[in-house]
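WARN no homologs supplied; continuing
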Amino acid sequence: MPKEITAAEKVIRTIMRDELKNFATKDDLKNFATKDDLKNFATKDDLKNFATKDEMNSKFNEVMNTLDGMYGLLKKNSEELSVMNHRVYKIQDPKLEDHEKRITHLEVSVA
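OK structure emitted
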């Protein structure tokens, strides 16, 4: 004959059931990674070969300083080119516009 459950046991079972609701079930645990799943991830030894945040910041600063220098050179070159273009067109343009008249004058004086 089955043993009769007392009121105290019922209360304890109810409390335990409520407390166990927060724990993982067998179905919950099936979704967790296994040791075989974790073999493809990096280990502490693997991570020692990677650069630290400070090393990356240092390299980033070197790259940015180099780019700043290159930008300065490009900006200077662009300004010089603008000045040269202005001078060339200011000096050469009247001669180019007047080239027909000058060619005719040369042809007449040679003939």
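The chain has six helices and no strands.
OK
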